[in-house]
Amino acid sequence: MKGNVYGYVRVSSVEQNEDRQLVALKDVGVVKHNIFIDKQSGKNFERPKYKKLVKKLKPGDLLYVQSIDRLGRNYIEIQEQWRFLTKDKGIDIVVLDMPLLDTRNGKDLLGTFIADLVLQILSFVAQTEREHIRERQAQGIAAAKSRGVKFGRPKKELPTNFYKVVRSWQRKELTGRQAAKECNMPVTTFLKKANSV
User: Quick check: 3 and 59 in contact, CB under 8 A?
Assistant: First the structure.
């Protein structure tokens, strides 16, 4: 009996576009309601849509992914998931940009060996790329900081009457709430800054 056909799409952030992956899945006949999309890092498999997909998968189903790094970027976890899906769940997986990673073919010992070998190499490449991305990001941040780029929200200037109001508050002439109102600040912010004066 032929199972259902699913597709899995992952991009690393909300800003990234998943269209290329969706087109590839549509081209192989995956219907829209059987495509699961996560917009988050591939560092692990704790992704809501991926988990939902795995729960739906039944023996005989077929799962398409564009490339192995869309499945994940952790060397060991990719291999564990691959074995879990193909052995425990009993599904077939096709990696579209790597025809050797099609579990429908080569179910003999040589085919399995070749697929396992390719999977190990690609998993290694995916994790290595993840590490390079992090390294390049850290280098970019360090370079920006050395050029004087400031990260985070700009520091908000204290109101001109702040120190005067703090003195009144310290002398118990004003409550914290009144002092914060005088400075046009939230009470917690006023108290935090006033206590550090």
Answer: yes
Residues forming beta bridges with residue 5, ordered by sequence position: 62
**Distance in angstroms (rounded) separating the CA atoms of residues 170 and 187:** 15
Q: What is the pLDDT along the chain (197 residues), one digit of tens a residue?
A: 478 999 999 988 777 888 999 999 999 999 999 999 998 877 778 889 999 999 999 999 999 999 888 877 777 788 888 888 888 898 999 999 888 788 887 666 665 666 677 667 766 766 677 677 778 777 777 787 888 877 777 777 888 899 999 999 999 998 989 999 988 989 988 888 888 87
Flag whether the pTM goes above 0.85. no
Please choose, from the candidates 27, 16, 169, 15, the residue with its C-alpha nearest in 3D space to the C-alpha of residue 7: 27
Q: Which of 12, 41, 67, 168 is catalytic?
A: 12
Q: Considering Cα of 46, then 52, then 58, then 62, what sign does the dihedral take?
A: negative
* 12 catalytic per annotation: yes
Cα 153 from chain centroid (whole Å)? 23
